[in-house]
Known about the structure:
It is a single chain. By secondary structure, this protein is an alpha+beta fold. It has one domain. The chain is built from five helices and nine strands, in the order H-E-H-H-E-E-E-E-H-E-E-E-E-H. The protein has helices spanning 5-21, 43-49, 52-58, 94-108, 160-174; strands spanning 34-35, 67-69, 72-77, 81-87, 89-90, 112-113, 124-127, 134-141, 147-154. The strands form two sheets. It has a seven-stranded antiparallel beta sheet with strand order 2-3-4-9-8-7-6, sandwiched between helices. A hairpin with a 2-residue loop joins strand 2 and strand 3 (72-77). The longest helix has 17 residues, at 5-21. It is globular, with a radius of gyration of 18 Å.
Amino acid sequence: MRLSRGPLALLLGTLLVVAVGCGGDDVADDPVGAEPSSSTPDDATCRELVGEAVVEALGWAGVPAATEHAGRCERVSPDHGSVTVRSEALVDPVDDVLAAACTGLREAGGTVAEPEPLAGTDRSCSSRYAGDTGVATLYYVNDGDRVVQLRVAAHAPTDQNALGAGLAALVTTTRGWDVEAAG
């Protein structure tokens, strides 16, 4: 079979888009209307945001300290899973960014709580996994008027009560976080 240049270029372009979209930085999780912050959190800030109270609430032990990775704070354990915190400098109004993030959760499927009671604000939404493993994401507007994304990816069994306690601990540590002053 011989393809002309037009269809071949279209096929290669599609494959490139698919390959880039399958990268490890979860581009689909980035809030719409956000851009990389001019101030990236440093490792010390990440250790504060994703501290021991968070992993203890999740029931995880022996998890290495959080570090900055690709502009977000991550605490990763090969045995348990990962916890990620991110906030971006906004180019769109905060409520528009939050609405786009919540729409993304709804479009991804599953049950979406809007607002999420754990966030303590009506300006929030979340999606949790069913069962004891999976990915849970919570978006909320913190006291610094920033959309904050909290993400727990549980590879080992982490029940819903522990997940809720872990997310609540993350809300507590990120509520007053000012991304511009961090780092």
